[in-house]
Design a protein that fits this description.
Blueprint: H1 8-19, H2 22-56, E1 67-70, E2 73-74, E3 81-83, E4 86-88, H3 90-118, E5 130-132, E6 139-141
Antiparallel strand pairs: 1-4, 2-3, 5-6
Helix pairs in contact: 2-3
Length: 157
């Protein structure tokens, strides 16, 4: 009885074809660059932007801002935590929002610059290459003697 499973060699060849497609490689490169860009933006926010904001707000460090919803329950005799406290780390959320806004603005600028670079300036108008047929008003080559659309003789028309 013959197996209906594909051979390992054909699976490997199919996987190599899939993995080495141009768009898959582009995706991998984009992912690596995006990860590195995220680290740069995180450093920009936490090390460059937030300290001056903290100074302007009276020395507030947003990353340490927490609201305690419930306090931890600790056994007085053993000192072990019976029930951990619940904290709302809204300062980290504020930092994440600032990270997102910077990433979104950066991506917008990059896409805008790429879009501007793609749009080439239109070529200066030169000699016309077509003319209008006087009978059917279709565009025909400038050197044509007969219209391809209505078969009118252009030389006599």
């Amino acid at each position: 009885m013959e197996s209906s499973l594909p051979k390992v060699g054909s699976l490997w060849a199919e996987f190599k074809k899939f993995a080495l497609q141009g768009n898959m490689v582009d995706l991998a490169v984009g992912l690596v660059i995006g990860t590195a860009f995220g680290k740069v933006v995180s450093s920009l926010v936490s090390d460059v932007i937030m300290p001056p904001i903290g100074v302007l707000t009276g020395g507030v460090d947003f990353s340490e801002k927490v609201i305690h919803i419930t306090h931890a329950v600790v056994d007085a005799t053993t000192g072990k935590t019976i029930k951990p406290g619940v904290d709302l780390h809204y300062g980290s959320f504020i930092n994440a929002i600032i990270n997102f806004l910077i990433v979104a603005a950066s991506i917008f600028v990059v896409i805008k610059l790429m879009s501007m670079a793609k749009h080439e300036t239109p070529a200066a108008p030169g000699e016309p290459t077509t003319k209008e047929c006087p009978m059917c008003l279709s565009a025909i080559p400038i050197k044509a003697h007969r219209c391809a659309h209505c078969c009118a003789d252009i030389a006599t028309a």
